[in-house]
Design a protein that fits this description.
Blueprint: H1 6-13, E1 20-22, E2 52-57, E3 63-66, E4 69-73, E5 76-84, E6 91-99, E7 102-107, E8 110-115, E9 119-124, E10 127-133, E11 141-153, E12 158-179, E13 182-198, E14 201-212, E15 216-222, E16 225-233
Antiparallel strand pairs: 1-11, 2-3, 2-16, 4-5, 5-6, 6-7, 7-10, 8-9, 9-11, 11-12, 12-13, 13-14, 14-15, 15-16
């Protein structure tokens, strides 16, 4: 099975290297000292070592997420998985953690090599970011503005930033959802609209995730295809 955790690859690859500034009313930017949040009674993304999810991808090979180790970043511990960087086929490291009702993500240092007539390489430092909040009401939105320091090495080295706007909307909270013939209960639907701007070039994408309580991500809908859960193993 190909190790391509694509439930998160696309959003991570258009948000490589994040330093977060929150624009929501409750202002809890990632990577900053925060007040202790009340623990959630829900668990839409179980974060335990050796947890594994396997998915069917409509347009390609099956996909896997596996938490195989932990790492500490700025005083926080993340469960870590690797995936293939679709830009150049290299491995990338991604982590997740839960604080209160907020799910955070981590991207390890990322190097992208490309050649469009002139060879170039972009390097992005490790970063932390907000993924979603499970205590938002249906229809509620949460906006995060992101400035990502970007270094491009080529004939002339360039230090710049990539600007992102993430708008998370809670689409639904369903009692149950059937995926690949299996019924999952207590499912939250999350829409993530992402605007990316780099050197006057903009890109927009919409991703829709479905998470089942005490199971994890069971479905992703995107312009590149759908990902539906086949099986999972939790510890």
């Amino acid at each position: 099975m190909k190790k391509l955790n694509y439930l998160f690859v696309y959003i991570i690859c258009i948000s490589l290297g994040l330093s977060i500034t929150s624009c929501s009313n409750d202002d809890d930017g990632a990577g900053e000292e925060q007040q202790e949040e009340e623990p959630t009674t829900l668990n839409y993304f179980p974060l335990t070592l050796d947890n594994e999810w396997n998915y069917d991808y409509t347009d390609g090979e099956d996909t896997q997420i596996l938490f195989y180790t932990t790492l500490d970043y700025e005083g926080n511990t993340f469960l870590v998985t690797d995936f293939v960087n679709p830009f150049d086929g290299g491995d990338m490291t991604q982590g997740f953690r839960l604080s209160g009702s907020t799910y955070y993500g981590y991207n390890g240092e990322t190097v992208i090599e490309y050649n469009s007539g002139i060879a170039a390489m972009a390097t992005i430092d490790p970063v932390e970011y907000v993924f979603f909040k499970d205590d938002m009401e249906v229809g509620e939105t949460y906006t995060t503005e992101v400035a990502a320091p970007t270094v491009i090495e080529s004939i002339i080295d360039i230090e710049t930033t990539t600007d992102f706007t993430f708008v998370t909307t809670i689409l639904s909270k369903e009692e149950e959802m059937i995926v690949n013939g299996v019924t999952y209960t207590d499912v939250i639907g999350v829409q993530l609209d992402v605007n990316t701007s780099l050197m006057d070039v903009e890109f927009d994408e919409t991703l829709i995730y479905y998470f089942a309580n005490e199971v994890g991500p069971i479905k992703l809908e995107s312009s590149l295809g759908d990902y539906t859960i086949l099986n999972y193993s939790l510890n």
